[in-house]
Structures are given as structure tokens and as C-alpha cells.
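Support request from a user on the community tier.

User writes: "When I paste my C-alpha cells into the form, the page sometimes reloads and wipes my input. The last time it worked, I copied everything first. Here is what I submitted, just in case something in the input itself triggers the reload:"
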């Protein structure tokens, strides 16, 4: 069971990338977003976010014990969910998706209040919650950027 949890938490071992595993995990989130974009289904979008968040809580808790630390670098399922939340219910093309990617990375690194506090939650819930909050900030910011610069961000 531990192997499966590590596989899920690292998003098929993407989290083992030696440089910036969180950025690689966010890029994996863009790939998953392609499925949502292609399907044009709000039900799929919400279902995928909820299912991956739940899987991340479970896998993150087990993977933290496996790696021996709190929210260790190889756990990147939180970045995948973060990208899905960042782009949720926003009809974007590539420029919008890439803008969302940059915004999410910024909010994920700086973790403005209360995102940083969510990291203190126990186990996988803490792993997932701080990135989910950062993604909410990124989603709101992306909407603002699209409103201010509609010709630039599609």
C-alpha cells in the first residue's frame, strides 16, 4: 500500500525530478487540465478536483511517513490539484493556462495568509490544503488579469 501511495503522491514519480519538483508537478497538472479542457465538463472538473484532493490527503499522509518529513519535495499531487483549481471554471487557451501556471507557482511559493497556516494541518490534509488555498488566490488573480488584459490572455 505504501508503494501505491508514493506513486500517487509523486504523480507517477514526477516528484523525483531533481530540479524544481513542484514546478514539474504543476506542469503535470497542466497535462491533467487538458483532459478537463477537452471534455468541457464542469462535472468532470469538480469530480476530478475532489477525487484528486481526497487521494492526495490519503497518499500525502502515507508518503510523509515514507519520506520522513512534513510536505517533502517529492510529493507533488498537491501541485496537480492546485493547477486544476487555478484554472477551474475559466475558459482559457494556452496563454491563459500558462498565465495561471505562473500565478499558481507564485502563490504556492509565497503562500499568503491563510495558505501558510494550512500547511500546519496534520498529514496529507496539510499537504493539500495550503496548495488549494494558493490556487484559489491564483484563480481569482487569473480572472482579474483576464478582465484587465482581455486581448493578451485568452
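"...and here is what came back when it finally went through:"
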Amino acid at each position: 500500500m505504501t508503494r501505491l501511495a508514493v506513486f500517487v503522491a509523486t504523480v507517477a514519480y514526477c516528484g523525483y525530478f531533481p530540479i524544481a519538483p513542484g514546478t514539474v508537478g504543476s506542469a503535470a497538472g497542466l497535462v491533467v487540465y487538458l483532459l478537463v479542457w477537452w471534455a468541457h465538463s464542469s462535472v468532470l472538473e469538480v469530480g476530478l478536483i475532489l477525487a484528486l484532493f481526497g487521494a492526495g490527503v490519503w497518499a500525502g499522509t502515507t508518503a510523509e511517513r515514507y519520506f520522513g518529513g512534513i510536505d517533502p519535495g517529492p510529493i507533488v499531487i498537491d501541485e496537480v490539484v492546485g493547477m486544476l483549481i487555478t484554472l477551474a471554471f475559466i475558459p482559457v487557451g494556452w496563454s491563459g493556462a500558462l498565465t495561471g501556471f505562473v500565478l499558481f507557482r507564485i502563490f504556492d511559493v509565497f503562500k499568503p495568509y491563510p495558505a501558510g497556516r494550512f500547511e500546519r494541518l496534520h498529514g496529507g490534509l496539510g499537504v493539500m490544503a495550503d496548495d488549494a488555498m494558493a490556487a484559489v488566490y491564483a484563480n481569482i488573480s487569473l480572472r482579474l488579469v483576464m478582465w484587465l488584459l482581455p486581448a493578451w490572455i485568452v
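Agent notes: The reload is a front-end session timeout and is unrelated to the input. The chain is about 70% helix and 0% strand. Residues 42-67 form the longest helix (26 residues). Escalated to web team.
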